[in-house]
Design a protein that fits this description.
This protein is of the alpha+beta class. It has a single domain, classed as Alpha-Beta Complex (Creatine Amidinohydrolase), CATH 3.90.230. Strands 1, 2, 4 and 5 form a four-stranded antiparallel sheet that branches. Helix 1 packs across helix 2 and helix 3 runs antiparallel to helix 4. It binds 2-amino-4-trifluoromethylsulfanyl-butyric acid and cobalt (II) ion (CO) (2 copies).
Amino acid sequence: MSIVIKTPDEIEKMRLACRLAGEVLDYITPFVKPGVATETLDRLCHDYMTQVQGCVPATLHYAPSGNTPYPKSICTSVNHQICHGIPGEKQLRNGDILNIDVTTIKNGYHGDTSRMFQVGDVSIQARRLCDVTFECMWKGIERVRPGATLGDIGHAIQRHAESAGFSVVREFCGHGVGARFHEEPQVVHFGRPGTGVALRPNMIFTIEPMINAGKAAIRILADGWTAVTKDHSLSAQWEHTVLVTETGYEVLTVSGGMRPPPEWVRP
Ligand code: MF3
Ligand code: CO
Ligand code: CO
């Protein structure tokens, strides 16, 4: 399968699916507190998506080849978990950081976004990791325009992460998204400027850097899904779905409660 250039009608459908995904994160935010089990967050998001938004949660029973079906409607990745953490009975504790990743399907189109949450009072180190990772995502988004390459995006992210003393996870990447959850191209979060696929108007893909406080190496838990840092250092991730426009980019996963871009991002 090759890169899909979206039609105006598809772009309109993606705007809706993506906004709804962002609104799930807005909805769940006040529930993210010490003592709440991640499976409670999953049930709340599941019910909101299916009963309020009329969406299908894309991750529920998602089974890319070689994987067991993913059992839940969101991903919750706590502390040294990098991504694809499976919600369960474990309760959040003061000082935890976690990523919540939501993918909606609305009218056949996918909206994919994730944010970091800080539970109670978190360490200065954890807060800095979350902030730098957020900046990394925006360093990548800022590069998006026709003629730029995927290597430009990856390089901007890698440089920002590594100059803060952090490392970039290599095994997972951003991806084209639309009628399918994971489409071409693969959007890796490291690389060299001017290399890789050139961006064209009406491509839609995610940018979702996973940044570790320690080394980049990962391990997959026995559940077959949860990725963790091998050295048990903290990990953070933020994700937006982005459209390439004629002149630059449009972030599609926008919602009232989203974190605004860093002040150095041009309007
Ligand atoms: N939402 C994740 C992404 O950004 C994918 C989750 S797949 C799952 O690509 F099966 F783990 F849920
Ligand atoms: Co994604
Ligand atoms: Co996602």
